[in-house]
Amino acid sequence: MKTGIFVVSDTHKLNAGMETALWREQGNFDYVIHLGDIEGCEREIREMVSKVNPAAGFITVRGNCDEDYSVPAFRTPEYRGVKIFAAHGHRYYNKVPGGPFDALASAAAGEGCRIALFGHTHRPHFEKAWNGVILINPGSISLPRQEDRRHGYGILTVADSGMILWEQKYLETPDTESSVKIPAV
What we know:
Blueprint (H helix, E strand, L loop, with lengths): L4 E4 L7 H9 L6 E4 L7 H11 L4 E4 L13 E2 L2 E2 L2 E6 L14 H9 L4 E3 L6 E5 L5 E5 L13 E7 L5 E7 L2 E10 L3
Parallel strand pairs: 1-2, 2-3, 6-7, 7-9
Antiparallel strand pairs: 1-10, 4-6, 5-6, 8-9, 10-11, 11-12
Helix pairs in contact: 1-2
């Protein structure tokens, strides 16, 4: 059994897809990060996670559609020695020369993070930023906006060696759609 982080975003009160994905990935995660636009369903999602894996950790961040200001705009959890910047992304998305995610990459680096997880665009995204930060968006599990409209989520794994593996997944295809291995630094 491998363990990792179940990463999801933009459920927008439509939680059936997330429940399906959690059951599909049962045994593959010991932590869940929700990247915002949970729209008041935090308790329902926490219960869902607890049913599938009672020992799993769970955090969420506030998205632009979330009204609970007690939920932080970003968090920086550490998982197996790798510090992660988790944000919805709307505060960092920009259209300046150099790329739309430069502000996100800068914010993550400023917090000492190797990885920045974000949502907001409803489109899966993976890239290594100019400063070395890995930018990952799982897409939306409820309201996808990319051309093929598949409902996305992912599993982030950190090996004992520090190697990072991102597995982009979709509800429509039970297997990993693509995976990227990131060398340990």
